[in-house]
Amino acid sequence: MQVVRDYTDQDLVAALKDERKTDDAIRFIYRQYYGLLENYVINNSGSADDAADMIQETILAFIEIIHKDAYRGEASVKSFLYTITRNLWLSELRKRSSADTRNKNFETAKDQVEDGMVQHLITREYYQQIQDLFEKLGDKCKQLLMLVYYEDLPMKDIVAQMPDYQNEQVLRNKKYKCMKQLEQLINENKDLKTQFKNALKNAR
Amino acid sequence: MQDNFTNETNIEQLNMFMDGDMPAAELTQLEQLIAANVNLQDRLENLQLAKSAIKSLGMQQRIKALHTEYMATTKATATVIKPNFGSTVSKVFRIAAVFVVVLLTYGIYQFSTTNTNNVFNDNYMAYQLPVNRGAETIATIDGLYQSNNYTAVIANFTANNNKQQKDYFLAALSYLQTDNAAKAIENFSTLQQLNSKSNDKYFADETDYYLAMAYIKAGNITAAKKQLDIIKGNKQHLFYQKASEISPLTLTMLTWKQ
User: Fold this and answer.
1) Is residue A32 situated within a structural domain?
2) Which of A16, A37, A182, A184 to mutate to test the interface with B (most CBs of B within 10 A)?
3) Domain at A86, CATH number
């Protein structure tokens, strides 16, 4: 049976930094704040599906901000999540209302976003573009890179999960090749990176 | 080595550097090359961004899975509520059904046990003549009635050639007491006619009620009901309360059984 527990803001932040406790902490965010955040989106011209997307983005942004130690606890977690959702949703509405979406990719308005969040949101948008490139890789590459960089598993454990590769060295070589392939795709899309860098510069 | 690093093949070495897989012997030299080469810095940055984007994608997928779990739980809760609502409704219907069955059973029992005799017995109360404490002697028919000698009352009444309203009343009551409902009706009706012609109404309210009882005893429920309705139409009637205690449903059941 799953234990349901409550968190203080401090406990929640600590749990989100701890890999083993992250799932329960995210579940808590869902239980505690989903209704609030969903209401915000729905009351501002969004649908329940929009709200679902925004809330997932909000939680992701929140976790990444915490991992970068950029959440200083000056606002409560509730206020902070609300602010992230508001900024993400306003940004999304701006994109939707624009005929030229591509040029609006990095238009997260500085005046609408709290300090420290602008850079994060701009980076998130660039990550999404890299993730689109990542999707172009083969399944083996995607699986391997996820196991290495997200799961952070040692090579010996990955060998057990990917028996097609005889040993750790073969797997390591495969990883380098996959990353080289991805890096090349990024390098071929220099414009995106330039836009990203300019947006970051303007946001400062 | 610097030139080599501009080749895409050596992106692998930058990757090794990023992941801490670079042999210590080559590490310092590579660090110096990166520091001196903007292109290498840019390519290394590409790798670092790729790594961060992959991490972010992993977290995104994890949140998505938890999102699905949350939505499923929410739906499951809603689904649980639905049968509960259904079961509440069905519980209400079940209670209602039991109530209907109980009601029907009671109705059937009432219908099967209700008859003119028990309705009569439940509502009939022998009439007590008022005692005239000042009178030194009690008129013969009154005395016979007070001593519950109903046969003698009837005999006295039959032999009487100068019958008064009071005689008809006591005779009618005595017929009722001796289970002769027809004669009771006949005499109560005669008394009603006499009362209607006379300014001196003798036992009018009593006659109304006991005539109704006589009709019940005789099984003439329609007439009994009509008589009781007359009484119930007058709140000042002496027998208003008594007449109201006889349920119309009981009378209807008696009608069905006729």
Assistant:
1) yes
2) A182
3) 1.10.1740.10
